[in-house]
């Protein structure tokens, strides 16, 4: 496949950027074209997207779509859906989409639905057991893809979650994390779910062992049958779970990447929270987005267009980060979830053949739920020296009855994207009163401080409600968007070799904390080790 920067479309985009892209002024673009908002409005399943406040025109979109064609994105997408081993460095298919296909519709359908049915039956059993020995607290132990998805989704869907089942998430190897959770629990009413694709991850294995030791100490019984009743596992490594003493295990497969595993048995805490029907709706929302990605025409294909927009900003404008601003408290963990999805997938510097790429890949993705971010870092978004595209997420109808709060939330959301785009000229600032300004300050100086450059791009995604179905669609939208930019960049979005070196060095350093041996280490690490072990 032709490398993206060698395609005709890339060269055309460079010319377009010089001629029209770099200096596109959003305020002028809206003034010139009454149809701009409609032209850049997208309707995908469950998600409406307003892309009109982005630094694009119709020609940009046309050329970006040509870029996707030139880079073979549609063919690669079809290969993914068909189960080809597109994760070439690990020789694996990439089939998280099969996990949300209806029975009989996707690859591996029989085994997918067999595990799904068993997992959902177990979730329903946990939900239904309200007796004195029923579980009130569920502690989910996992990290990365075995933590962020379930944690984000259960937070988002709290309003429809079982009111008597409290979910706790433990991920960090820092034992403060598990200690904080365990000290409030009654072992007799607690279910632990050990979630790990490999069942070898240091953090998860350490925390699982701590949990079991705590459980035995609390119950005063080191009884295999009792441990087996209170521990379940979600993993591809059933043998290792059995070795640990877990007999209730829900499996998945090597063709499900860790950061794409939310839809597999890893979603068990989600199923316990929202029930089998809710989980099936969640899968159905994602499947609807899969169909959109597979079938919608490229210029109207929302994940494709968003992925291409990411390329436009990263490689032509040179923007190094993107901020995610969910105006819904339930989505507070979405930025963290997207960090893994996007940066572990596309934070690569070589192509499929291992050749070093001459262009930038994954941006830094970061953010915070609105309106909290406004009182922290939005200053920089509005007046800082870097341009950072912002992605607002608004939900039309809340799950509470406080209309006043919700209108304030939404007004803030719209106001921020408006302020980023419109800015404020120095002349406008000069004409305004500034009651908190220092007495005697030159008005011209003050006006320069109060000038907003504007023309800062943003996207606004709108959901009607935050439901299992709409959240499923939203997450699948992000997955396919990351797929698209990764496919344009020609990288393998499905491996993660970059996490290995630190793990290996940690393995070598760990015994030195007991031996205090600093021999052979670089001077900085030796000094720090000596300081920490003195
Ligand atoms: O951080 C590396 C990683 O392999 C992630 O890709 C994965 O989600 C996480 O560790 C957890 O791995 P596991 O599910 O095997 O415990």
Which key phrases capture this entry?
binds 6-O-phosphono-beta-D-fructofuranose; alpha/beta; six-stranded mixed β-sheet; five-stranded parallel β-sheet
Compose a concise summary of this entry.
The protein has 534 residues and is α/β, with parallel strands linked by helices. 49% of the residues lie in helices and 10% in strands. The strands form two sheets. The chain has a six-stranded mixed sheet, with helices on both faces.
Spatial order of the strands forming the largest sheet: 1-2-11-10-8-9
Output the radius of gyration. 25 Å
- Main sheet makeup: 6 strands, mixed
Oligomer: single chain
Put simply, the count of helices is 22
What does this 3D model show about the protein?
The protein has about 525 residues and is an alpha/beta fold. Helix content is about 50%, strand content about 10%. The chain contains 22 helices and eleven strands. The protein has helices at about 10-20, 25-30, 35-40, 60-70, 75-80, 110-130, 150-155, 175-180, 200-220, 225-230, 240-245, 270-295, 300-315, 335-345, 380-385, 405-420, 425-430, 445-450, 470-490, 500-510, 510-515, 525-534, and strands spanning about 40-45, 45-50, 135-140, 165-170, 190-195, 230-235, 250, 320-325, 365, 390-395, 460-465. Strands 1-2-11-10-8-9 form a six-stranded mixed β-sheet, with helices on both faces. Strands 4-3-5-6-7 form a five-stranded parallel β-sheet, with helices on both faces. The longest helix is centred in the middle third of the chain and has 28 residues, at about 270-295. The chain is globular. The mean pLDDT is about 95. It binds 6-O-phosphono-beta-D-fructofuranose. 6-O-phosphono-beta-D-fructofuranose binds near residues 197 and 204.
């Amino acid at each position: 496949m032709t490398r993206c920067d060698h395609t005709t479309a890339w060269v055309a985009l460079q010319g377009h950027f010089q001629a029209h892209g770099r200096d596109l002024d959003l305020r002028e673009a809206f003034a010139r074209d009454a149809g701009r908002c409609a032209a850049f409005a997208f309707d995908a399943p469950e998600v409406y997207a307003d892309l009109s406040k982005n630094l694009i025109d119709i020609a940009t979109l046309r050329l970006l779509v040509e870029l996707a064609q030139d880079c073979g994105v549609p063919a690669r997408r079809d290969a993914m859906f068909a189960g080809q081993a597109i994760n070439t460095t690990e020789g694996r298919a990439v089939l998280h989409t099969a996990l949300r296909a209806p029975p009989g519709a996707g690859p591996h359908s029989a085994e997918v639905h067999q595990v799904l049915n068993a997992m959902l039956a177990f979730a329903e059993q946990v939900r239904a057991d309200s007796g004195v020995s029923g579980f009130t607290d569920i502690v989910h132990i996992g990290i990365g893809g075995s933590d962020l998805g379930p944690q984000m989704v259960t937070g988002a869907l709290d309003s429809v979650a079982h009111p008597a089942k409290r979910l706790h998430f433990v991920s960090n190897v820092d034992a403060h994390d598990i200690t904080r959770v365990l000290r409030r629990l009654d072992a007799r009413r607690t279910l632990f779910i050990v979630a790990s694709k490999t069942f070898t991850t240091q953090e998860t294995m350490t925390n699982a062992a701590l949990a079991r030791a705590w459980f035995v100490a609390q119950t005063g019984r080191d009884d295999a049958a009792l441990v087996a009743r209170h521990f379940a596992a979600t993993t591809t490594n059933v043998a290792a779970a059995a070795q640990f003493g877990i007999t209730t295990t829900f499996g998945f497969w090597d063709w499900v990447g860790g950061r794409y595993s939310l839809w597999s048995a890893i979603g068990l805490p989600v199923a316990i929270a929202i029930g089998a029907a809710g989980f099936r709706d969640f899968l159905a929302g994602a499947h609807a987005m899969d169909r959109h990605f597979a079938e919608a025409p490229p210029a109207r294909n929302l994940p494709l267009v968003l992925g291409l927009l990411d390329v436009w900003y990263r490689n032509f404008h040179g923007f190094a980060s993107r901020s995610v601003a969910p105006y819904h408290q339930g989505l507070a963990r979405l930025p963290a979830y997207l960090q893994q999805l996007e940066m572990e997938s596309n934070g690569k510097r070589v192509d499929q053949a291992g050749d070093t790429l001459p262009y930038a890949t994954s941006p830094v993705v970061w953010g915070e739920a609105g309106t909290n971010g406004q009182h922290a870092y939005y200053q920089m978004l509005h007046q800082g020296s870097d341009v950072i595209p912002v992605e607002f997420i608004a939900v039309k109808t809340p799950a509470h009855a406080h209309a006043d709060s919700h209108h304030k939330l939404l007004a803030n959301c719209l106001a921020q994207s408006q302020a980023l785009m419109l800015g404020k000229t120095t002349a406008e600032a000069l004409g305004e009163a500034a009651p908190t300004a220092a007495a005697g300050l030159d008005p011209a100086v003050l006006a320069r401080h109060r000038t907003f450059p504007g023309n800062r791009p943003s996207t606004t995604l709108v959901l009607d409600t935050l439901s299992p179905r709409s959240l499923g669609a939203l997450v699948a939208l992000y997955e396919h968007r990351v797929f698209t930019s990764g496919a344009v960049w020609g990288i393998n979005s499905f491996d993660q070799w970059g996490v290995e070196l630190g793990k290996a060095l940690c393995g070598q350093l760990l015994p030195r904390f007991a031996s205090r041996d600093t021999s052979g280490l670089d001077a900085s690490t030796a000094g720090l080790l000596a300081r920490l072990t003195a």
